[in-house]
Structures are given as structure tokens and as C-alpha cells.
Amino acid sequence: MQSFHLFRVVKLLCLPLFIGCVPLDQASTNMNSSSSYPKKLLLDNHVYEENIKTVRLYPIQDSYDEAIQPAVLPLQSARNLVLEFDQLFGDFQSYYARLVHCNANWEKSQLSNNDILAEFNEFPITDYQYSFGTRTPYVHYQWMVPQVKRTGNYVIKVFRQGNEADLILTRRFMVYDNRVQIDAIVGISDGIVERDFNQQLNFSIGYPELPVRNPLEEFNIVIRQNKRWDNALRNLPPTSVKEDLKTLEYRYFNLENNFQGGNEFRFFDLRSINILGQNIASIDRQENRVDAFILRDELNKHRIQGTFQDINGEYVIDNLESDPPTITSDYVFVHFFLESPPRSEDVFIFGALSDWKFTDDNLMNYDTEINGYTNSMLLKQGWYNYIYYLPQSENPYYYEGSYFQTENLYEILVYYRPVGALADQLVGYSNIIHNRRP
């Protein structure tokens, strides 16, 4: 096993990463330069420059769990959301943020800035700190998202020096006001074949407080699993409308309300670069970079559904050697190896570490010399969940397996748009953790 990892060290150190085999300090000039603009605005979670890393948006935390909670808050909440990100290399730059209100389909709504905010919609991001004692220098930025006046979907748009065309990142969040009652349960699939693999959501919505004329037209339902948007269920019509009781029921028989359960996420502990954390095979420390090699992964077909507690695909930034972890945690080239015959479909490293996206950065590459898939990602020290996922396959969980018993987070979002309204309102929000671990 040791010789195998030494071979990988030599081979993977020269992978065509975005800085190639150039030392990090020599690559800083290229990474710190802004790309040409204007850049196309995407009303999605997106990073527009490669030196912007570790973007997180979450409720102000009172406990360990808050940093991995969904970016969802009730209207007039006592808490705020916090946006954090790192700019690798270079000095402090002047960044600004604006909020964009969106409809249920994440298209810009017709609401004006005055409709959504009590203040001018342009906010300088002035809370920043330089990294301390790290091989990779960076500036850590933090911004508290202001309170809004209307419910619905929002996108934070961060740009450079007051120039909205010079985009840095965009990040989604939601604000709700519970004006409907949501009763939901996660159960076994109605499909005979699928009942061991899928999870099914049956739910109803009561709306006695809303002046609804046509519930089939005025409500829009979205359900997502583990904060993912790629497999979210949208525009689900009710299976039953009880206008006398002002209730909608959503109980399907053709798997419309099914999700594959998947398996508990794989994980690795990169909270230290001086000792080997769980599932870390080796660490190569150099003067200007650190490489960490994860233990060899393989197909999970002989492994029953996991019973350990994961964090549903998320990651937590942490550092065992120094505080605070936000500015003392280093960036590490993390090398993945999945032992497997080649597949016809693309294989991705998937989770919050990939921003729940499928891009070249987290696409696995097949290496015939070592009979497996490899990839490297530049990640900040912490505790990480991940899986290997095949989005184009009929069996995307080919490497993981899918089980009804898997713990997953589900969110039900109820949007309401009465006739003549300028935007969708988020009038109902509920989250359910299926099979929560003790």
C-alpha cells in the first residue's frame, strides 16, 4: 500500500491543475488577476474567478450545526445570514454586494429595490482578515446579509469596486413567512421495486389564511434533498383539492414524489496537516504547498447501508492546531483515487465541496496505468463529506448504493402568487430529517 501511494505522489503532483506544477507563490499573479468582464450573471450558486474559494452562506451560528444549515430564514428573523469567502493571494480588494429578488423558478422578479429593502441596495464588504501562518496566503471576507422586507428567493451578487459587470460570486438564499400549514412524512416508496432504494414524501398543505381563488394556478411547490438544486422536484400538482377545507394533498402513485435515498456520505478529516486524520493515507508537506492523499476508494456494492453519522454532504472548516480556523486553516491539494474499471458515463466527486455542481474541477479522470479514476481539488482544511456520482447514468449512485434507510434532509418550499402580483411569495417552509441519527 505504501509503494502505491508513493507512486501516486509522483504521478499526481504533475496533474494539470489550474496552476499546473508551478509553485503556489509563482502562480499568485495569474490567480489574483480578474478575468475580462462583463461576465454573464447567473442567478445560481456560482463563482466567477478561480482564486475565490470556500464560499459559504449560513445562519449566524450559535452551535456547531449552524454552519451546515440551509440558507433559509423566516421573515423578520432575530438572526441574519452570514456570507464568507476567501480570496487566494493578493491584498484586500474592494468588494460590494447587492440583492436580487427572484421568483420560484429563479428568474428575476419585477420587485424594485424599495420593495425588498429599507436601505440602498449596495453594500460594501469591509469585514476582512488576512490569513496567518499558512503556505497559501488569502484574505478572508465576511458579510452579514441585511434584513429584507419581502419573502421569496434571493441571490446575493458580489462584484468588484462598484462595477456590477465585474462579478465575483453569486449565492442563493430564501426568506419565508409561514402562512400555510405543511404536514409531511417521508415513507417507503409505493413502487414495489423502488421501496428498498427510494424515499417518498407524502404531504398536504392547508391555506385557510390565504385568499386563494385558483389553488392549481397560484401555488408552486419545490422539494429539495440535502440542499441540492440539481435533482429538486418542481411544479408538483396536487393530487387532491379540498376547497371546502382549503387543503391540497400531494400523494402520488407513479413515483413523482420519490428521491433515491443514496448512501451515507464518505468522509475525510483534514483538520490537521501534521498528523493523519481519518481516511487520509498520507500528507506531503512542502515549503509552498501541501498535498493530501485520501485512502483508496472503491465500489460500495459489498458494503451495506452505512449507520455512521454524516453531515449530508457538507463540510466544516476547522483546524486542530491553531485558532481561529477561518484564517489559520491552510489550503491543501486533496487527491482522490477511485479504483474501478472505466465507465461510459462521467464520474464526479460530489457534495458541498463541489458546490453541488458538475464541472471540470470535480470531474474524475480515468488512468489506465493505475486502473482507476483520479482527481485533485484545492480545499481548505476541515472535515468533508463526499460521494462519487454519475449524473448522466440511470444509476447515479452506482458507486455508493441507494437505500431507504439513509439519513437525508428534505425541504418543502411553498410559493404563492395571487392574480396580479409582481412576484412569488414564499408562504411555507418545512424541513424534515429522515432517519435522523441519535
What is the secondary structure topology, with strand pairs?
Blueprint lengths: L1 H11 L11 H9 L13 E2 L4 E8 L12 E3 L6 E8 L6 E8 L10 H4 L6 E3 L1 E4 L7 E7 L7 E9 L2 E14 L4 E8 L9 E9 L8 H4 E7 L7 E2 L5 E3 L4 E4 L7 E3 L5 E4 L10 E6 L4 E5 L2 E2 L16 E3 L7 H4 L2 E9 L8 E3 L14 E3 L4 E9 L1 E8 L18 E9 L8 E10 L4
Poorly predicted parts: 1-23, 25-30
* Biggest sheet descriptor: 6 strands, mixed
By secondary-structure content and strand pairing, the structural class works out as: mainly beta
- The number of E-state strands comes to 29
State the helicity in percent bands: under 10%
Describe this structure in words.
The chain is mainly β and 438 residues long. The protein has 3 domains: 25-176, Sandwich (Immunoglobulin-like); 181-261 and 405-434, Immunoglobulin-like (Sandwich); 266-389, no CATH class. The chain is 7% helix and 39% strand. The protein is built from 5 helices and 29 strands. The protein has helices spanning 2-12, 24-32, 113-116, 215-218, 325-328; strands at 46-47, 52-59, 72-74, 81-88, 95-102, 123-125, 127-130, 138-144, 152-160, 163-176, 181-188, 198-206, 219-225, 233-234, 240-242, 247-250, 258-260, 266-269, 280-285, 290-294, 297-298, 315-317, 331-339, 348-350, 365-367, 372-380, 382-389, 408-416, 425-434. Strands 1, 3, 5, 6, 9 and 10 form a 6-stranded mixed β-sheet that branches. Strands 19, 20, 21, 23, 25 and 26 form a 6-stranded mixed β-sheet that branches. The longest helix is centred in the first third of the chain and has 11 residues, at 2-12. The chain is globular. The two termini are 35 Å apart. Residues 1-23 and 25-30 have low confidence and may be disordered.
